[in-house]
Amino acid sequence: MDDNSGRTKVQIDTHRFLKVLFGDATFGQLEELNRFKELRLEPYEIATLDALFPKGEPMHWICDYF
Q: What is the number of structural domains in the chain?
């Protein structure tokens, strides 16, 4: 039996993925994902992805040498 439950492919461009990966935005905040490449995420899927990739404080990188 081929059970694909729990498998949701999320096709997302690099810019949006990096925003989510580094905590700049959550999947729930990226409303355009629902229209991007006809992606349809259910509310429970968005909640799961938001839990896996939580929004965090912005990180600022500076050079530590002169």
A: 1
**Domain contains 1:** no
Any domain includes 4: no
Q: Report mean pLDDT in 10-residue bins for the chain, 66 residues.
A: 64 81 83 65 82 79 68
The whole-model pTM stands at 0.58
Closest-CA residue to 33 (of 47, 17, 48, 21) = 17
